[in-house]
Amino acid sequence: MAVDTRESMRWLYERSRSARGAICRTVLLGWASGCLLIAQAFFLSRIIHGVVIEACPREALTGWFAGLAAAILVKAVAGWWRETSGFAAGARVRAAVRMELLGRVVARGPAFTRQERTGALASVLVEQVEGLQGFYALYLPQLVLVILLPLTLAAAVFHVSWAAGLLLLATAPMIPIFTILVGMGAESISQRHFQSLSRMSAHFLDVLQGLATLKLFDRSREEADAIARVSADYRRRTMSVLYVAFLSSAVIEFFASLSIALVAVYLGMSYLGYFNFGLYGQPIALADGLFVLLLAPDFYLPLRELGAHYHARARALAAAEEIRGLLQGPLPGLAGGRGRLTSPEGIRLQCSGLHFAYDAGRRPALKGVSLEIVPGRCIALLGGSGAGKSTLIGLLLGFITPDQGEILVNGAPLNGLDPGCWRRQVGWVGQNPVLFHGSLRENLRLGQPDAEEDRLTEAARAAGVLDFARLLPRGLDTPVGEQGVGLSRGEAQRVALARVFLKNAPVLLLDEPTAGLDADTERRVLDGIETFRVGRTVLTVTHRLADIRRADRILVMEEGRIIEEGPPAGLLSAGGPFQRLMGS
Question: Coil, strand, or helix at residue 281?
């Protein structure tokens, strides 16, 4: 077994701890069902013996029939309970793994999600986590039952004939041996199947998100062909998995049938008098022979079920490889901090010698950036595309960690702070505000879920949300679609600003806060920001002159460096990079 496979198997076993009780209950119920199989075989063999050999009247067999009916009923209940318990075990593990994955994705932050295809991430969180269900619900309990049940049934057979018992025990290993031989490549086949599914999910999502662009550039036919190729690859991978599963089932059935036939031959020869061994010196009765014959298929049943569930193991191993890859990725430095802010009322930010590159060997996004922002001051950040503005914002938010240099918050290193504690002190509005499916009011309350209605209304007024909300059929209770469907970009921007106003954080980071707004709305929103920013630490990324004039200081960035800084009026008359940017 390869090292990665061993690690994945160890990971799967470790995750079973969260459902240990349900798995143990599943095993116990499976063993109880096996014991009830012995009872069924016993009662049925006695009934047939009584009818065929002893010609017993119906009344004499009433007790046997009652026992058989009770055994069948109790076994059915135990089987149902076992299935329910197994499903609960799988569901519990899936929920725990999914929460762990979501926590990891959140901890790694937007810098990670921007590098990954959304469809592939969704595939891991949904399809591949679902792929763990069979391992915990079926395979893992069966791994224990495959030892317990055959030994229990063999003990019952040994009570009648030690030769038949030995025959069962001798032929039992053939089934798992040949199952393993047939399914040796099942893990790699399942892994390729999952990778194909991830590619297909990611491709479908990309096409759906870019449908308008594809139509405008008349590339719909080419993308349809690409989808057909991806789907055909997924179909081939699926058929490969099914081929291994069906071949394993055929091998299991063949050897189980062969072994049962050997037991039947032994019993037949014993009845004919050719074999006189293995019966403890007593002639074998019809009831005893029927009892052994009825138990023989059930003796191999746990082995056959384990073989049938072997593909669940292969599927879980393939899923575990992908899930572990996501869980083991590096976390930003802020993710491990535990420190608290000593004075969150006023926050002073100091950046010294910040260097950062997204990948080794690529051009650095930041090269020795140093700046200081004090409470009550607004710093405006300018620069062309790729200057490093968004990277600096990402560092301040704690989504990424500098390769060199440090960020101090009230004199304490940012990477030593608790992430939740720090982000509660920060209000952020990005270029593409994210709104969730729900009402306008629910989206506003993301900033402060327990805010009073008066504060919510005031924040909505300051950001200009009430201007368009009054025209909507249900005001702030009007539902909006995912990603702000139903609102213009400017309206979505105002909702995001109102959310930040409601949060009332001491640090305010704004990335083009008035993008998409008309001149009148821009003026009123800037008035709201200016009122709100009093006593706060503010950094805004902008290219709009109206925003710049309200800033206390300007920083101009180019190729990851701050190349010019000063007050707006002074820079406008200096004839430097700032003036050239504003002129362009």
Answer: coil
Q: What are 243's two structure tokens?
A: 């081929």
Contact predicate 136/23, CB 8 Å? yes
Q: Where are the strands (E) in 327-466, listed by range?
A: 349-356, 366-373, 378-383, 404-409, 412-413, 426-429, 438-439
Q: Model's pTM, two decimal places?
A: 0.68
**How many residues are there in the chain?**
584
C-alpha–C-alpha distance, residues 195 and 237, integer Å: 10
Asked whether 123 and 202 are in contact (CB, 8 A), the reply is yes
Distance of alpha carbon 516 from alpha carbon 492, whole angstroms: 9
The answer to whether the beta carbons of residues 555 and 570 sit under 8 Å apart is: no
Which residues lie across from 367 on neighbouring strands?
A: 355
Query: 507 pairs with which residues across the strands?
Result: 426, 537
Three-state SS at 264: helix
Q: Quick count: other Cβ atoms within 10 Å of Cβ 124?
A: 23
Q: How far is CA 377 from the centre of its chain?
A: 42
Q: What is the pLDDT of residues 84-112, one digit of tens each?
A: 999 999 999 999 999 888 888 777 766 66
Contacts of 363 (CB under 8 A, 6+ apart): 357, 560
Q: Which residues pair with 408 in a beta bridge?
A: 350, 413
User: Which pair of tokens denotes residue 268?
Assistant: 């037949």
DSSP lists the bridge partners of residue 458 as none
Walk me through the domains of the chain, giving residue ranges and CATH numbers: 3-331 (1.20.1560.10), 347-425+506-514+534-584 (3.40.50.300), 432-504 (3.40.50.300)
CA atoms of 262 and 277, how far apart (whole Å): 15
pLDDT 10s digits, 488-524: 777 888 888 888 888 888 888 888 877 767 777 777 7
* Angle, vertex CA 438, rays to CA 531 and CA 454, nearest 5: 35
